[in-house]
Amino acid sequence: MAAAVPLVDLQAAHAEVAEEVREGFDRVLSSGAYIKGPDVAEFEAEYAAFSGVRHAVGTANGTDALELALRALELPEGAGVVLPANTFVATAEAVVRAGLRPVLVDVDPAFLLTDPAAVADRLGEAAALMPVHLNGQLAPMEQLLEVAGELPVIEDGAQSQGALRHGRVSGSWGRISATSFYPGKNLGAYGDAGAVVTDDAELAKAVRLIGDHGSGVKYVHERFGFNSRMDTLQAVVLRAKLRRLPAWNEARRTAAARYDELLSGLDELGGLTTPLTMPGNEHVWHLYAVRLERGRDEVLAALQAEGIGAGVHYPVPVHLQPAFAHLGHGAGSFPVTEKAAGEILTLPLFPQITEDQQTRVAEVLAKALARI
User: Fold this and answer.
1) With the C-alpha atoms ordered 72, 73, 79, 84, is the resulting torsion angle positive or negative?
2) Of 49, 162, 212, 368, which has the fewest beta carbons less than 10 angstroms from its beta carbon?
3) How far is CA 223 from CA 214, 220, 358, in A?
4) Where are the alpha helices (DSSP H) in 128-244?
5) pLDDT of residue 144 exceeding 80
6) What confidence category does residue 268 fall into, taking pLDDT thresholds of 50, 70 and 90?
7) Residues forming beta bridges with residue 356, ordered by sequence position
8) Pairing status of strand 101-105 against strand 164-165
9) Cα Rg of the chain, angstroms
10) Dist CA 80 CA 59 (whole Å)
């Protein structure tokens, strides 16, 4: 069998930063500053600048970042937060953990992003809006902000680090934004980590306070909080990777364009559709997710049997998960999301992927589609 092609090659990314990370780890280990070390503050300043905002607060993971952003807004207990059904479960989890209620809406059929028209229909039930930037591109933020009016908008930017809409970067549109540095993200740590970014100094202060046991002074707890601090070692990794992120995102764009070309003749096989970029967006291709009108699971199995690390993201939508049955949504509640859940197939894509690897993915995919 030909060499396997992983869905994400974390080792290749590590090879590019290994020496810098090793030096940083030695520095931290020598100092013993494992929590709140200088590298955390340095990374926060660098990531805030990268995100086009004044403040960034490191957190233990992306889910905590979402919860902290919500808690900092001090929304009424049990208030609704509008979010798309087509998202990872963490978006809805964070809402519930913050003592709030998910108000789910469907997505648009072309880009599978938060649909402003659907939001407008449900916004009367909510105190905030949380659009999700999916697969590496932003939701239509200018429309969503207009629909939201005076209600706060919280961006879920876990999949869009460095993505732009009309030249404006992810994380700078809403009142506050949260992101994840899970290892497989465009900017990934060597474990769990996340961040909240905002232009609002008071919100940033609240996020930092809540995420450090509600304490700004040792043993003085101003408000109820919990422990969600970024480890210094993770900040070292993230600083090294952030310096390379623009080039890595550009490499992802090149790889996505190559897939578009390689797959252009396969649209009649399995009803394959390549992913679209919404006008006004500069995509960073966290995921390259094609859609198959038929035979998705058979094609997935065929790819994996040949060593192609394809995957399926969100095969069961949030509203059909047992943990969210209390929301009362059955099958058919969000038809666009449900249709996509049965069609999405994610192909290998990472900054270091080679043309030969992508050609092999396309060839194996074509053979699998021909057998449907």
Assistant:
1) negative
2) 49
3) 5, 9, 52
4) 141-148, 201-210, 232-242
5) yes
6) confident
7) none
8) unpaired
9) 21
10) 24
